[in-house]
Amino acid sequence: VDLFDAIQGRRSIRRYRPDPVPRDDLLRVVEAGLWAPSGQNLQPVRAWILTDRDEIDTLSADLRAYGLKLKRMMWLLKVLVPRFRGGKGERVFRSFRERLFHDAPALILVGADRNASSTYLRDCTLAAMNMQLAAHALGLGSCYVGWISLLDRCPAVKRRLGIEPAVEIVDALTVGQPLATPNAPPRPDPAERTRWLP
Ligand SMILES: Cc1cc2nc3c(=O)[nH]c(=O)nc-3n(C[C@H](O)[C@H](O)[C@H](O)COP(=O)(O)O)c2cc1C
Q1: Which residue has the higher pLDDT, 71 or 151?
Q2: Residue 131 C-alpha to ligand 1 middle, in angstroms?
Q3: Which residue, of 39, 50, 84, 106, has the fewest CB within 10 Å?
């Protein structure tokens, strides 16, 4: 695969075939993530993979229950957090679907021990990007699911998954055979988004 084609051809896939993803493919995806750069080369990134549909559904339901609580508190958030005012709060919930993980047959959680590196957030997200491209290169679809950030507010759920309290799960990727690939949302002209500094 040409890298530029892969970068432009990767889509966020939200409809999947139920077929399981071979473990070797999932490990190759994780491996691509581990080849991402990391601050001071500390390599703090780790992955947790769920392939049990019931587990994935339960995680989705647990996070959704917490998110719905937040949504009901939106009026309070608007009072307390200026950036939630004027429709912004509602927009946050735009991707808050019935099934946060799109009924995918696999879910990769990307995280790190908070104490392992001062750049663990960036390290994790760079790894997740590599993983999305690797999944695409293997003919798999993936979707970044930002709602995983709610997991840290649900310590009981984290415990159930066997994730240590010191670990923060930073990114989540649904993975599976795509059932439908959407058209690419257009991107801005790079020249318009670029300023050449003297
Ligand atoms: C930080 C972040 C959070 C995202 N969260 C979600 C999400 O919770 N649910 C979802 O379906 N897509 C989510 N996405 C995927 C975006 O909606 C998607 O990347 C965007 O619409 C562009 O489409 P493309 O990836 O096909 O180019 C997220 C993407 C990013 C970068």
Answers
A1: 151
A2: 14
A3: 39
What pLDDT sits at residue 74? 87
- What is this structure's pTM? 0.95
Q: What is the pLDDT of residue 155?
A: 97
* Spatial CB neighbours of 97, under 8 Å, sequence gap ≥ 6: none
Q: Is the CB of 120 under 6 A from ligand 1?
A: no
Would you tell me the crossing angle of helices 120-137 and 23-34 to the nearest 10 degrees?
140
189 burial (CB, 10 Å; 0-12 / 13-18 / 19+) is exposed
The closest residue, in CA terms, to atom 28 on ligand 1 is 144
Q: How many CA atoms does the CB half-sphere of 64 hold within 13 Å?
A: 14
The encoded tokens of residue 110 equal 């990307």
pLDDT at 115: 98
> What's the distance, CA 4 to chain centroid?
22
